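User: Please predict structures.

Assistant: First:
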Amino acid sequence: VIYLGIVMTVLGYGAWFYILSKHPMPVAMPFLLLIPVSAILGAVLFLNEVPSIDVIFGGSIIITGIAIILIEPKIFFKLIRR
């Protein structure tokens, strides 16, 4: 709990503030959704946790959504406006 609550949160928000210092908010905002994913990856890599299929599925949905928003935002916003 201490590891995930302190270490991974500090790393996640540290990366977030670094991205904010280099990019405008609309570009940086989708990366905020990667904080829970990075916490899970840290738990897998450093604590040998085994994520459930639900966690893997949810993380893949988040990463796919971020990729859609960052790679081709015009297509994403056209789909939303329909």
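Second:
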Amino acid sequence: DALYDLMVERLRELRPDATILQDLGAEDIDESVRITHERPMLSLNKCYTEEDLNRWFDRFEGQAVVSPKIDGVAMSIRYDDDGKLWLAATRGDGREGERITENARRVIGVPETIPQGPLEVRGEAYLPLDIFQEKWAESFANPRNLAAGALKQKDPEGTRNYGVHFLAYEVIGLHHLSDEASRFDAI
């Protein structure tokens, strides 16, 4: 089984549009397989004061994108040549993450298809505070841990029930765009 799973994963990397992969169906996918990120998924920098922000800006030259932090779980979503979602993974340790493809398909804001591929979309899976307060605050410590648990459900439909959302913050692979545009434009 392990060798079979590795062979299927390798085929997904080499030929994500292979007909046999579509014939296998979701039930044959081992979501516990570790996925190697083609580019490391590094931690985002954060700061709490204007002084911290200015010190951070002083370390480099050029433009930067600054946004409020969404406290969730970093995800990588890969789309094939036709723009179809074929792989999703957690950040993990930054070099390897856990495959969560079927669960990611049930996250609000993760499209099954996009206008063009191949590319990778990185972003944050999170539980909005209003949903957490309304439905889950009495049973769970915080929305971040609940989002992480929802992404690792054995039953993908369970993920849908939690109301996890996705916010894209990086697009990798649009070679016809400038480097800056391809990194930060949302789909």
